[in-house]
Structures are given as C-alpha cells and as structure tokens.
Amino acid sequence: MWDLVGRLGGQLRVIPGAVIGWDISAALALATALGINPLIVAELLPEIEAVMVHKLNEQMTGNDASDVRS
After folding, report:
1. What is the rounded CA–CA span in Å between residue 37 and residue 39?
2. Helix (H) or strand (E) holding 18
3. By the 8 A CB rule, do 31 and 4 touch?
4. pLDDT on residue 70
5. In 3-state terms, what secondary structure has residue 36?
6. pLDDT for 12-57, tens place per residue?
7. Whole-number pLDDT of residue 26
8. First CA to last CA distance, the chain
9. Spatial CB neighbours of 36, under 8 Å, sequence gap ≥ 6
C-alpha cells in the first residue's frame, strides 16, 4: 500500500493554491497493476489522502504546525 502511495505524486488533483486530492481512478488502476487488492485501496486510500491533502495545503500556505519559528 505504501508503495502505491509513494507512486501517486503525479496523480494529484489541484486547483490554484490548493491540493484537493489524488485521482482515485488512476490510483485504483495503478493498484491493480501493482497487484494490490482494489478493495483494500478503496478502504484505506481516502484516509491517507485526507492526511496528505491537509499536510500539503499547510505547507503551501506556510501554516505548518511543525514549522516552529522563533
């Protein structure tokens, strides 16, 4: 599953100034090609996607909570 997630960088859906998610159709096709059960991908990927979207948008706006500046 993590191999799939690592390969989805080029499958981002974006609007000006924000990431909105992955292209799930492409993710499912890639999962099938990699031999990953599509049911598992359909169950787990949306949760992983939500975290990814949140973190990338934080980084783009400079509101990354882990980026503590003095």
Report:
1. 5
2. strand 18-22
3. yes
4. 40
5. coil
6. 999 999 999 999 999 999 999 999 999 999 999 999 999 999 999 9
7. 95
8. 38
9. 1, 4
